[in-house]
From TrEMBL, chain A:
Annotated protein name in UniProt: Oligopeptide/dipeptide ABC transporter, ATP-binding protein, C-terminal domain-containing protein
Region spans: Disordered: 275-296
Domain spans labelled ABC transmembrane type-1: 77-266
Domain ABC transporter residue range list: 301-544
GO MF term (any one): ATP hydrolysis activity
From TrEMBL, chain B:
Organism of origin: Nonomuraea maritima
Highest rank taxon of the organism: Bacteria
One protein family per Pfam: BPD_transp_1
Cited SUPFAM superfamilies: MetI-like
A GO term from the CC aspect: plasma membrane
Membrane-topology annotation of the record: Multi-pass membrane protein
Region (Disordered): 1-21
Lineage start: Bacteria, Bacillati, Actinomycetota, Actinomycetes, Streptosporangiales
Principal subcellular localisation of the protein: membrane
Family, similarity comment: Belongs to the binding-protein-dependent transport system permease family.
Protein name, entry field: Peptide/nickel transport system permease protein
Location in the cell: Cell membrane
Domain ABC transmembrane type-1: 119-320
Automatic annotation (TrEMBL), chain C:
One MF annotation (Gene Ontology) recorded for this entry: ATP hydrolysis activity
Protein name per its UniProtKB record: Peptide/nickel transport system ATP-binding protein
Keyword Aminoacyl-tRNA synthetase appears in the UniProt entry: no
Gene3D superfamilies (UniProt xref): P-loop containing nucleotide triphosphate hydrolases
Organism of this sequence: Nonomuraea maritima
InterPro entries documented for this protein: AAA+_ATPase, ABC_transp_ATP-bind, ABC_transporter-like_ATP-bd, ABC_transporter-like_CS, Oligopep_ABC_C, P-loop_NTPase
C-alpha cells in the first residue's frame, strides 16, 4: 500500500506543481537580484531613444524618457512582490483578528461581527479596495491598504469557520469538561488545528493581492511616478497600445506569469494538504482461468473465484465463491474492511475505478453477466444500499425515479410507468403511495425511503436482490419492518436475496444461510439456524460470543477478539485470522486453509477444525 | 464519519416529513430579505461616511491647494458639509431615497443622470458575460468530470486542471489588453474600443468571461464528481440507465445549486471586473466613470457610483439566494453545512 | 446523584422534556432510545455541553466519552498529552501510565498519535482521559456505536470492570438494548424526550411495563437455535 507521503510526493511531481514552483522561485530570485543587476539600466535616461518600439537594443522598447522597458519590468518585480506581500499580511492580520473576535465577544456582538463578515465576503474585493483607496488617498499606500482590506473578509470567514468547527469538536468539549482553561484550549487545540489551512490561504492570497495591486496601478489608482510596479508600467504601456503593442507586453506577461505561478502553487499546496492515500498506477493482473465444470443450473446467482484488487497490491476481495438458489436468503457477514460491500459492488458491476474485478464465473439468472444486456441486468438485479437518504436522487420526485426503470428498459409510457410506480410503492406498504410518489425524497422518513428503494427494485422482475447494510442506518423498530418486507419480497417474487451486514444477529434472524467473510475471504458457510450452536470457525465463534444478547450472562465477561483485521494489502500467506486466533499453530501462519465441507451444508476454512 | 443512528442534538425541529416545507421556505426567504435590508443600511452609512473619512477637507482636496478660500467655503456650504453630522446624514438619506445622488464637482451634472446613462452599458456587458460563461462552462465541467471520474484519463485531468488553473489566474484586464493587441490592433477584426453595435461587444464580453468560464467549469467538475460518487448514482447505474439519462437527468440537477451559487457570486465579481475591462475598451459604463471620478477627486460621483455598485451586488446576492431557495428546498441545510 | 426536571430546547423544539432520573452512587444507569428520543441531548446537558433548565444534583466532575473516537481526540496531540490534559503537571508522569493501565493500554502508547491507533484503542484513550478528570459521574454516549463487534466486547468488559474496581458511577447511553442490559444496573427507556420506563435491568428486559419498551424488545434481533 502506498503511504501518505508517497501520495504527497506525487502531488509535488505533477506538472502544474513544478511549473508553479519554478515560476514562484524565479519571481523570488528576481525580487532579490533584479534591482541589483538592472537597477542602473532601468533609470538611465536616453533622450535619443524616446518612446521607441521593440528593437535589438531595447527588446521591449523604451518609455517617454528613453529608459529601457525590459530592465524596468525586471526591476519592478521587487516592488510589485513586496507590495503584494505587505497587502497580504495586512489582510491576513485584519481578517484573522476579525475572525477570532466573535469567540471572545459577548453573544450579541459576536453575532453582529459574524453577520458583517458574511456581508463583506459577498462584496467584490475591487470595490472594497477602491473605497479604501479613496479614503486613504491615491498612491501605493492607499492601494496596499485597499487590497489588504479586500483580502480581510475572506480570511475572517475562513478563521471563523475553522475555529467554529474545531471549537465544536468533541475533543474541545472533553477538554472543557476536564476544566482546561479557555486560553489553553485556544493555544493547545484551536490554534494548532486551524494554523495549517490559514497558512495555505496566505500563500493563495499572495497571488490575488499581486493581481489586485496590478489592477489598481493599471487604473492609475495605485503606484504613482516616479515609483513603478508592473501595473504602473502597464498603465504607461497601454497608452501606446495602438502604436506599439509590444510595450504593454512585458509588464502584462510579468503580471500574468506571477498570477499563474502563485495560483498553480496554491492549488498544489491545497491538494497536498487534502490528499488521501489513494494509489495511482494500474497493475495488470491476470484473472483466474474460466471455471471448467458445468455451471450450476439451479443457481440464480453463481460467483466463482471473484477477486477485487486495487493498484498498489491491495486486494480487498480474494477468490470468493458464492451460490444463491431462487428464493434463498443468504447473509454475507463480516466486520468493516472484510470486503463484503465490495463483493456486492463487484456483483453489481459497480466497483469504482481503478479497482479491477476478475472472476472465473459470474452468472445471473442462468446467463453469464457479460452476455446480459443492460435491460436484462437493470431489471433482473435490484440493489439496496445502506443510506436511504443518499440512495434516492434529492432533485427528483420519488415516483419519477421509480417509473424510470419501466420507461427506459420496458418501453412503458410515462403514465403506465407512473401507475406501476404507485402500485409498487403501495406494495411495499408505503402509506398513501399516490401522494408520496409526487414528493421529493427529503419529505419522506428514513424507513419510508428505504421502502421506496426496495419498491424501485420491484419495478423490474428481480431475480436477485443485493441489499448492502440496508438497515444499519435505521432504528431497531424500523429495521424490524424493513427486514419483514425483504422477506416478503423474496417469498413473493422468488428472487434470491444477498443480505450484507456487519450484524451477525440480524443476519442470523433473517437469513437461510450465512457466509462469513474475513480479510477478503470466506472463512465459513453454514445454515443460519446453526449459527448459535454449530459454528465451527474460531472467528465465527468469537464473533458470536462477543455479541451480547438479551440472555447473555451478565456475571461473566464478554468475549472479544484481540488485535485487528489486517488491511487488504497486508494479508500474509497463511490464514488471515491466525494472528488473532487462540488456536493458531505454526501451520496456520504459513499455509492458508481452503474452504472444505464440514457437516451438512457447512463449509469451513480452518486447519484446526478440518485438519 | 457521520452517524445515522443517534439523535444529533442539532436536529432541526421541523425536519419532519411533509407539512411545514412551504412555511419553512417562506421563513427562510424572510430572513434573507432582512439580511439584505441590514446590509443595505450598512452600505448607506458606509457611502455617507466615505467623504467624511477622507483625511483633511475633501473640498480642498478636490479643488486643489491653489483654489481661493471663498470658493472652498461656498462649495462646502453648497454641499452642506458645514452642518452637524447627524443632520447631514439624514439629508443624505432623504436625497438618496428620492433619487438625488448629488452633483458632480467637476461638471455640475446631477450624478443620478450620469448613472442612469451609463448603468445599462455596464449591466448588459456583465449579464452577457455571465450567460456566455454558464453556457460554455457547465457542459465543459460535466464533460471533464465524466471523463476523469475516479482518476481515469489522467491526461485529461491534468490538461483540464492546468488550463483552467491558468485561465483563472490571469486577470480580465490582461485578457482585454491581449485581445486588443492581437484581434483589434494586430488583425483588425474587431473595433478596439468604444460601444457602437454588436461587434464592439465581442472583445469585452470575451475578456470578461474567460476567467469565469474556467472557474465555473472547475466547480461543475468537482460537484459532478461528488454526485457521481453518491449512492443514488450507484443505484441508477445498477438499474443500467443509459449514460445520457444518468448524467443529464440525475446528476445535472444536483450540481446546479452549487454552480448557480457560484454563477451568482461571479456575476457580482464580474461587475467589479468590468471596471477594468471598461477602462481598457473605453466602454461608456459605470466602471470608466468611477476610475475617472477617483483620479479626478470628484467625490460625489465616486460616492454615488460605489453606492450603486454596492446596491447591485446586494440585489444580485438576494436574487441568487431567493432563486436557490425556491429551486432547492434543502439549500439552507447545505448552506449551513458549507 | 439525581437529574431533576431537566428540559433541553433547541429553538421551538423540545429534545428532552422534563426528565427526572436517579443516578445511584456506584451504579451504571443505562439509557436506551431510538434516534430523536433525546438521549444524546440528555447526555450533553448532564455534561454541561448544552444549556438546559432543571437541575443535576450531586454529580461532581462530570466527564463524557463520545461516540466517535476519530473525532474526539485532537489529531495533533499524543496519547500521553491527551490523557494528561486535566492533570496537574507534576503528577502527569505517574498518572498517565496509571490511567493507561486502567484501560488496559500499554504505557508505551503515550508517545503515539491517534492516527496510529485502532478504533478500540482510541476509545480506550478517550476513557482514560475522562478518568483523569476523577469523575463523580462518567457519561458514555454510544461509545461502542462505531466499533466492530469483536472490539465492542472488550470495551464493554472494560466499562463493567471500571464500575466494579473503582466504584464508578456511570450514565451509559446506547441504542442497543442488549448492550445496555449487559453493562447497566438499571435501565431507563427514552421516547420522544421523556423517560417512559426506569427500573432494574433484568426487570425492564424481563417484564417491561411500557408498550414502547416492549416494542423495542421485540425488535432486538436474536440468533435462532
Amino acid at each position: 500500500m502506498r503511504t501518505d507521503s508517497d501520495a504527497r510526493d506525487s502531488v509535488w511531481r505533477s506538472p502544474s506543481a513544478i511549473i508553479g514552483g519554478v515560476i514562484v522561485a524565479l519571481m523570488a530570485v528576481l525580487a532579490v537580484v533584479g534591482p541589483l543587476i538592472w537597477g542602473a539600466t532601468a533609470e538611465r535616461v536616453d533622450a535619443a531613444a524616446i518612446l521607441q518600439g521593440s528593437s535589438a537594443a531595447h527588446p521591449l522598447g523604451t518609455d517617454n524618457l528613453g529608459r529601457d522597458l525590459l530592465a524596468r519590468v525586471l526591476v519592478a518585480g521587487r516592488y510589485s512582490l513586496s507590495l503584494a506581500l505587505v497587502a497580504t499580511l495586512i489582510g491576513a492580520a485584519l481578517g484573522i483578528l476579525l475572525g477570532a473576535l466573535p469567540s471572545v465577544l459577548p453573544r450579541r456582538a459576536a453575532r453582529f461581527v459574524t453577520g458583517a463578515v458574511h456581508a463583506l465576503v459577498a462584496f467584490p474585493g475591487l470595490l472594497l479596495a477602491m473605497f479604501t483607496a479613496v479614503v486613504a488617498g491615491l498612491g501605493a499606500r492607499g492601494a496596499v491598504l485597499g487590497i489588504g482590506v479586500a483580502i480581510a473578509p475572506g480570511f475572517a470567514r475562513l478563521t471563523q469557520t475553522l475555529a467554529a468547527s474545531v471549537a465544536g469538536s468533541d475533543y474541545v468539549a472533553a477538554a472543557r469538561m476536564l476544566g482546561v482553561p479557555r486560553r489553553r484550549v485556544l493555544t493547545r487545540h484551536i490554534l494548532p488545528n486551524i494554523a495549517e489551512p490559514l497558512i495555505l490561504n496566505l500563500a493563495q492570497s499572495l497571488g490575488g493581492a499581486l493581481l489586485g495591486l496590478a489592477g489598481m496601478s493599471f487604473l492609475g489608482l495605485g503606484v504613482q511616478p516616479p515609483d513603478f510596479d508592473w501595473g504602473r508600467l502597464l498603465f504607461d504601456g497601454f497608452a501606446r497600445i495602438y502604436v506599439d503593442p509590444e510595450v504593454a507586453l512585458g509588464p502584462a506577461a510579468a503580471v500574468a506569469l506571477a498570477g499563474i505561478g502563485f495560483n498553480l502553487l496554491g492549488d498544489t499546496l491545497a491538494r497536498a494538504a487534502a490528499r488521501s492515500s489513494a494509489g495511482r498506477h494500474q497493475t495488470d493482473r491476470p484473472g483466474p482461468p474460466p471455471a471448467e465444470d458445468e455451471p450450476d443450473q439451479d443457481a440464480v446467482l453463481e460467483v466463482r473465484d471473484l477477486t477485487v484488487s486495487f493498484p498498489g497490491g491491495s486486494t480487498p476481495v480474494r477468490g470468493l465463491s458464492l451460490t444463491l438458489a431462487p428464493g434463498e436468503i443468504v447473509g454475507l457477514v463480516g466486520e468493516s474492511g472484510s470486503g463484503k460491500s465490495l463483493t456486492a459492488a463487484a456483483i453489481g458491476g459497480l466497483v469504482p475505478y481503478p479497482g479491477a474485478v476478475t472472476y472465473a464465473r459470474l452468472r445471473l439468472a442462468g446467463a453469464d453477466v457479460a452476455d446480459l444486456t443492460d435491460k436484462e441486468l437493470g431489471t433482473a438485479l435490484a440493489m439496496v444500499f445502506q443510506d436511504p437518504m443518499a440512495s434516492l436522487n434529492p432533485a427528483l420526485r420519488v415516483g419519477g425515479q421509480l417509473a424510470e426503470v419501466a420507461v427506459v428498459h420496458q418501453g412503458a409510457s410515462r403514465a403506465d410507468a407512473r401507475r406501476r410506480a404507485v402500485d409498487r410503492l403501495g406494495h411495499v406498504r408505503l402509506p398513501d403511495p399516490e401522494r408520496h410518489a409526487g414528493q421529493h425524497p427529503h419529505e419522506l422518513s428514513g424507513g419510508m425511503r428505504q421502502r421506496a428503494v426496495i419498491a424501485m427494485g420491484l419495478m423490474g422482475t428481480p431475480r436477485v436482490v443485493i441489499a448492502d447494510e440496508p438497515t444499519t442506518a435505521l432504528d431497531v423498530t424500523v429495521q424490524r419492518q424493513i427486514l419483514r418486507l425483504l422477506r416478503e419480497v423474496v417469498t413473493e417474487t422468488g428472487a434470491a436475496l444477498l443480505f450484507i451486514s456487519h450484524d451477525i444477529a440480524v443476519v442470523g434472524e433473517l437469513c437461510d444461510r450465512v457466509v462469513v467473510m474475513y480479510a477478503g475471504r470466506v472463512v465459513e458457510e453454514l445454515p443460519a439456524d446453526r449459527l448459535a450452536a454449530g459454528a465451527a470457525h474460531p472467528y465465527t465463534r468469537a464473533l458470536i460470543a462477543s455479541l451480547p444478547d438479551l440472555d447473555t450472562d451478565r456475571s461473566r465477561p464478554l468475549a472479544g477478539i484481540p488485535g485487528t483485521q489486517p488491511a487488504p494489502a497486508r494479508v500474509g500467506p497463511g490464514c488471515a485470522f491466525a494472528p488473532r486466533c487462540v488456536l493458531a499453530t505454526a501451520r496456520c501462519h504459513g499455509e492458508r486453509p481452503e474452504l472444505v465441507v464440514h457437516g451438512p451444508r457447512q463449509r469451513v476454512a480452518c486447519w484446526e477444525v478440518t485438519p | 464519519m457521520t452517524d445515522l443512528r443517534t439523535d444529533a442534538p442539532t436536529a432541526r425541529p421541523d425536519r419532519s416529513p411533509g407539512g411545514t416545507a412551504a412555511r419553512r421556505a417562506l421563513r427562510t426567504a424572510a430572513r434573507r430579505v432582512l439580511r439584505f435590508a441590514v446590509s443595505l443600511a450598512v452600505l448607506l452609512v458606509a457611502s455617507f461616511a466615505m467623504i467624511h473619512l477622507i483625511p483633511g477637507d475633501p473640498v480642498r482636496a478636490s479643488l486643489g491647494p491653489a483654489a481661493p478660500a471663498e470658493l472652498v467655503a461656498t462649495r462646502t456650504a453648497a454641499l452642506g458639509l458645514d452642518r452637524p453630522l447627524p443632520e447631514q446624514f439624514f439629508t443624505y438619506l432623504g436625497n438618496v431615497l428620492t433619487g438625488d445622488l448629488g452633483t458632480s464637482f467637476l461638471t455640475g451634472e446631477p450624478v443620478a443622470d450620469v448613472i442612469a446613462a451609463r448603468l445599462p452599458n455596464t449591466l448588459s456587458l456583465a449579464l452577457l458575460a455571465t450567460a456566455v460563461a454558464l453556457v460554455v462552462a457547465v457542459p465543459l465541467g460535466m464533460w471533464a468530470a465524466v471523463r476523469t471520474e475516479n482518476g481515469r484519463n489522467r491526461g485529461t485531468e491534468l490538461a483540464f486542471g492546468t488550463v483552467t488553473g491558468t485561465a483563472v489566474a490571469v486577470p480580465e484586464f490582461l485578457y482585454s489588453i491581449a485581445l486588443v493587441a492581437v484581434l483589434a490592433v494586430g488583425l483588425g477584426w474587431f473595433p478596439p474600443a468604444g460601444q457602437a453595435g454588436p461587434a464592439t461587444y465581442v472583445l469585452p464580453v470575451l475578456a470578461l468571461s474567460v476567467g469565469p468560464i474556467a472557474m465555473i467549469a472547475r466547480i461543475t467538475r468537482v460537484e459532478t464528481l461528488r454526485e457521481l460518487g453518491s449512492d443514488y448514482v450507484r443505484l441508477a447505474r445498477a438499474k443500467r440507465l443509459p449514460a445520457a439519462r444518468l448524467h443529464l437527468r440525475h446528476v445535472l440537477p444536483n450540481t446546479l445549486t452549487a454552480t448557480l451559487t457560484v454563477g451568482g457570486l461571479l456575476l457580482t465579481s464580474l461587475i467589479a471586473g468590468s471596471v477594468l475591462v471598461e477602462y481598457v475598451f473605453a466602454w461608456p459604463g459605470l466602471g470608466m466613470k468611477i476610475v475617472e471620478s477617483i483620479t479626478q477627486k470628484d467625490y460625489p460621483v465616486a460616492q454615488a457610483v460605489i453606492l450603486v455598485y454596492g446596491a447591485i451586488v446586494l440585489v444580485v446576492n438576494l436574487a441568487v439566494d431567493l432563486v436557490l431557495g425556491a429551486l432547492d428546498p434543502t439549500s439552507e441545510i447545505k448552506e449551513v453545512a458549507a | 446523584m439525581r437529574i431533576e426536571r431537566l428540559t433541553v430546547r433547541y429553538g421551538g423544539f423540545t429534545a428532552v422534556d422534563d426528565v427526572t432520573l436517579d443516578l445511584p452512587d456506584g451504579h451504571v444507569v443505562g439509557l436506551v432510545g431510538e434516534s430523536g428520543s433525546g438521549k444524546s441531548s440528555l447526555a450533553r446537558a448532564v455534561s454541561g455541553l448544552v444549556p438546559y433548565t432543571g437541575r443535576v444534583v450531586g454529580a461532581p466532575r462530570v466527564q463524557m466519552v463520545f461516540q466517535d473516537p476519530y473525532a474526539s481526540l485532537d489529531p495533533r496531540m499524543t496519547v500521553g498529552e491527551t490523557v494528561g490534559e486535566g492533570i496537574a503537571k507534576r503528577r502527569r508522569a505517574t498518572e498517565v501510565p496509571r490511567l493507561l493501565g486502567l484501560v488496559h493500554l500499554p504505557a508505551e502508547l503515550a508517545g503515539r498519535y491517534p492516527r496510529e491507533l485502532s478504533g478500540g484503542q482510541r476509545q480506550r484513550v478517550a476513557i482514560a482521559r475522562a478518568l483523569g478528570g476523577d469523575p463523580g459521574l462518567l457519561v458514555a454516549d454510544e461509545i461502542t456505536g462505531s466499533l466492530d463487534v469483536s472490539v465492542q466486547g472488550a470495551v464493554l468488559n472494560l466499562v463493567r470492570g471500571l464500575r466494579d474496581e473503582l466504584g464508578l458511577s456511570m450514565l451509559f447511553i446506547s441504542h442497543n438494548l442488549a448492550v445496555v442490559r449487559y453493562v447497566a444496573d438499571t435501565i431507563a427507556v427514552m421516547h420522544h424526550g421523556r423517560v417512559v420506563e426506569h427500573g432494574p435491568a433484568e426487570q425492564v428486559v424481563g417484564e417491561p411495563a411500557h408498550d414502547y419498551t416492549r416494542a423495542l424488545l421485540e425488535a432486538v434481533p436474536r440468533l435462532r437455535g
